[in-house]
Amino acid sequence: MTIKKLDGKIPDGPVDQKWNQHRFNMKLINPSNKRKFKVIVVGTGLAGASAAATLAELGYQVDAFCISDSPRRAHSIAAQGGINAAKNYPNDGDSVWRLFYDTVKGGDFRAREANVYRLAQVSNSIIDQCVAQGVPFAREYGGTLSNRSFGGAQVSRTFYARGQTGQQLLLGAYSAMMKEVHKNRIKVFTRREMVELVVIDGKARGIIARNIITGELEKHSADAVLLCTGGYGNVFFLSTNAMASNSSAAWKAYKKGAYFGNPCFTQIHPTCIPVHGENQSKLTLMSESLRNDGRVWVPKAQGDKRPPNEIPDDERDYYLERVYPSFGNLAPRDVSSRQAKYAVDQGRGVGKSGYAVYLDFRDAIKRDGQKAIADRYGNLFDMYQQITAENPYEVPMRIYPAVHYTMGGLWVDYNLMSSVPGLFVLGEANFSDHGANRLGASALMQGLADGYFVIPYTLGNYFATEKPEKTPVTTEHPEFEQALKSSASRFEQLFAVNGKRSVDSFHKELGHIMWEYVGMARDEEGLKKAIGLIQNLRKEFWKDVRVTGSDVGVNLELEKANRVADFIELGELMARDALERKESCGGHFRVESQTEDNEALRDDENFCHVAAWEFQSVDTAPLRHIEELKFENVHLSQRSYK
Amino acid sequence: MSDGNMNLKLKVWRQKNTKDAGQMVDYSLEGVSPDMSFLEMMDMLNEKLVNEGQDSIAFDHDCREGICGMCSMMINGQAHGPKDLTTTCQLHMRSFKDGDTVVVEPWRARAFPVMKDLMVDRSAFDQIIAAGGFVNVNTGNAPDGNAIPISKENADLAMDAAACIGCAACVASCKNASAMLFVSAKISQLALLPQGEVEGEERVRSMVSKMDELGFGNCTNEAECEASCPKGISISNIARMNRQYFTSAIKAK
Amino acid sequence: MIARFTRLMSASVVKKQIMGLTGLLLCGFLVGHLAGNLLIFVGAEYFNAYGHALITNPLIYVAEAGLGVLFIAHLGMAVRLIMENHKARPVKYYLKQPTGRGSTFASSTMPYTGTLTLIFLVLHILQFKFGPVYTIVHGGVEMRDLYKLVVEFYQSEVAVLWYVVCMISIGVHLTHGFWSAFQSLGFHHPSYTPLLRKISVGFAVVIAGGFASLPIYCYFQGGM
Fold this sequence. Notes:
The complex is a heterotrimer of chains A (about 650), B (about 250) and C (about 220). With about 250 residues, chain B is an alpha+beta fold. Chain B has 2 domains: about 5-105, Beta-grasp domain (Ubiquitin-like (UB roll), Roll), CATH 3.10.20.30; about 120-250, Alpha-helical ferredoxin (Fumarate Reductase Iron-sulfur Protein, Chain B, domain 2, Orthogonal Bundle). In chain B, about 35% of the residues lie in helices and about 15% in strands. Chain B has a 5-stranded mixed β-sheet. Chain B has a two-stranded antiparallel ribbon with strand order 6-7. The relative contact order of chain B is 0.14. A two-stranded antiparallel sheet of chain C has the order 1-2.
């Protein structure tokens, strides 16, 4: 096994000068030459839409692909709470440096310093850009932008648009994109799913897309391919991701040579509505912003089944406030999730299933009045009531952690380029900025930073350096034919199995394995067991899956089967990565590696690196390469939110 | 919350593709839990169809938390079903009773051809947005976010309009298949903010003319759109659009 | 200029504004017409004098032409909108139910109440404007005895009933049409609009009730 030490191509110089210097050093493309380059953007969430819009504004030809009927439906739309920026409008001590510091620390020291600094640096421009697009951020009576605080930070730096910040930012990026569609600089291909990456002479030069409506496979060529396809939380079947969120595009890229970074880093969000039954299709998140005013508690006594309002204060355990007095209910996500799990494991969980804790607004309502609380969280409360038929103004919400975000993703260098030249990965789909845990309101920031302010520079540099226009390719190239054939045969195979079990039944089984062994707490024995179980599941899938309908026209079962087949393989990789990373950090908690008071214990000596996996074959174990992480500005320390 | 599961009769529109004539097909489904969402009930029906070797029912859905605007469905003759301020994915089966017959149809409008079963093509909405539903500002051109103060009242009104999820329930529930609520919500949002106001007159003309060109009907102020809008977008936006259009059309050169 | 005009007239927003504007102007006519006709209650002499003044004023032709244009514009636009709206949904729903929070009986029956009004209008003009000519002399001036014509006409229960039904229909039409015109013209306010909707109902009751009282009064004036 040859282990490569990967080069993240981090520019030299002090961390606060790296991006500025790099921008100056990068080569430019003459404005009139930009139209000669064609870029494929797969996915139209925050990262994809912002990238497509900005690249088109610069003059590139952009082909944008989305899986839904409109680019506006990407799952970024569901982000509720807000977006961070180091504006320091509240004058409470924030700065670019502090946002950088908080994000590195929040990520439990497993992210690149240089990337995170750049993210903090451009965060302010994102807010300005969104305001200019007409994003209706919340405002104060004086007409200035309003801020609130979020988990993992002691300053108020989160900008928000009610409980629909993701929606408003996405609609802003979408409208910027439609502005370019109007000018014929972007062509949008809706209801398309990328099913193969086409690599020619070692460079990404196009994709095969499946038209979901007709079932046809289409060839699309370009000078570079941008994957902005989001995360892979749906490996767990139940997650807060949208139903169509999937990992297939990233997985195809992985199989074509792009390395997969830190696949085991998944975020379990502490405030979701608990599972109600076996037929449940997805979990619904309650924004973390609720923890600003809600207090998390469980009964002190085990098995206390009294209705919550009948449990007196001295018999309640406000465990986050007790364990983390300085951060209290705003402790970071991984920490809060794990504490909820402990409470439930101790038999102090609440609700019918016992898999829940309370999030109580009684005191906030008493303090600020119901109207003030409704102004802040009205839509979230309504949503909760709609799903559970309980009124959270009167009884505390029941919440439980659920899979929400994946910090891992395709490995990229500082320029957001994967290990396949010409293949760039943006947003949640890449592994880069959040380390082992993402702070609240940072995902929106990263997606937009990548799309609006990073890729426009680094892609130009790639074109100017590599000159792909000198070797033009068309879809007539034999590699396209080859890719088309292999995709077609995969779909034929899915039909050919003609077994007895539905696709969903496999997906649910995979989800159970992942949640049980690769969920909030992982250990060696469990992970080994999981790998075996997943391998068996994969074999079983290809022997017994049943796909009805035909490959002509809309076929939801076929789409799902294709995605689940990839999820199964990815699940195995996640378990492998979790097994090899014998330390706890952020969202990755190895039972063997914890402090005396059950906090994640890092092993900086052996694991202060990114693991980047290289595909071999489905039946051969992948290679684990590493990229060393150097911390020159933030002192490596045990995270403490006490 | 009742623990009793329900048995339902379903009448679902089945149509192979845009050209197919389509028809209502009867199904029955047992053991539906009142805690399930409407779409989970549809999943259950599909699982049953797949196990019987039949083609599953195609319907649009994605986020299942009421924000992406992908889910559609006329349920018992109402867009997104009987509850107000609710998308189909957030409609729970506790709104139905054991033994109920539930009629499920796709959105119907000339501008939204049916693609399969309950899936329709809503790209007309994208075309309307592309005609002017944006602020013409390129990345990097923005002044500081606090450079132009915006009154809280206007920011809130803009947000009310911007909450539109583009699901098209307004078109589906309007007896004239008019898209005015959708179009006016975008026009209002941008008209209420200084950033968007600059191009306001041009925007209202081009978006309205695109809407007309795509074959949507005319508004007769019945307000069924507002009543069935899962986000409660107000028809005051339509009035604002009417007002803006009038002045803009007269002033246009 | 003509191209610009036709383009403007074909815009959906403008079409409904024309509906609203012509509708409101016709409301104005109704108010005037009702005010004049209420003179029946004052006495035959006054009523006939009012009629005479109207008929003999040369401006009546301009006013009639104006009214004609308004009616035709309102009607023509209605027909055009109904046809377009019908085309906007070529495949109808198997089942369609109102939410109960939006449309009203009035709003969903506008084409029917409108059609009934049109039929009423044609008959009304034939019955009175082109009806039998009686004359009478008031204060030395010979004039048409419209009072006699009206009272005579409304001795028939059928005629009274028809008239009352038509007035109720116009009233229903107005409860939606009146506030709706303001909405189409771009007036909407969180507190004035709900008030306006109440005023619409009040206006409709006054107009319909006012007009309906006339034939009933005439019916009981019979045999004098």
